[in-house]
TrEMBL record:
Transmembrane segments: none
One family name in Pfam for this protein: AdoMet_Synthase
Name of this protein: S-adenosylmethionine synthetase
């Protein structure tokens, strides 16, 4: 099973990460085991339990804000990325609604080989912002504000710029708060 798992991972990563040379830039290892001793007893119990690291919990329908977040992420990764090669694969979208206002925060890894300088980087971020601003009214009538790559600091030369289009190259494993509500 080890070789099957590694081959599947290599094939998948190669298919979704356009700027990553899987053979040269990624080491794959397979560590499939019986799981944590602390959690094995959970599976022996007759009661239905949910542990957010082990089980999927969902609900429907999506709220308007959730739909906006999902459609924004899909638009960026499935449509805009085809027209904007500087946009990497690692895109995270967070939404917050207060009353009639929705705020979207987008973290979009950009690819350094596709951007010549800070001005072009800013231009790409503005294009991402503007395309989301065009999309939002098709999903919600609410006021939507959009922030892109909020950790950037152009004066200090800090940009969300990557070689591969993935945040993992800088030690970010992609662990973000998901489903921190009672219903998922």
């Amino acid at each position: 099973f080890r070789s099957v798992a590694i081959e599947a991972a290599q094939k998948y990563i190669g298919s979704v990460c356009a700027h990553l040379d899987v053979a040269k830039q990624v080491d794959f290892d397979c560590k499939i085991g019986s799981g944590s001793v602390d959690l094995r007893g959970v599976f022996d119990q007759s009661a239905v339990l949910a542990n957010d690291t082990s089980f999927g919990v969902g609900f429907a329908p999506f709220s308007e804000t959730e739909r906006l977040v999902l459609e924004t992420e899909r638009f960026l990764t499935l449509k805009l990325k085809k027209r904007l090669p500087a946009l990497g694969e690692d895109v995270k979208v967070m939404g917050y609604r207060s009353g009639n206002d929705i705020r979207l925060t987008v973290a979009a890894a950009l690819v350094d080989s596709e951007i010549k300088d800070g001005d072009e980087y800013q231009s790409v971020c503005e294009e991402i912002h503007d395309k989301i601003a065009d999309l939002a009214p098709k999903i919600t009538p609410r006021s939507v504000s959009i922030d892109v790559n909020t950790a950037d600091d152009p004066e200090l030369g800090r940009y969300y710029l990557t070689v591969t289009g993935l945040s993992m190259e800088a030690g970010d494993d992609g662990s973000v708060g998901r489903g921190n509500r009672a219903n998922g």
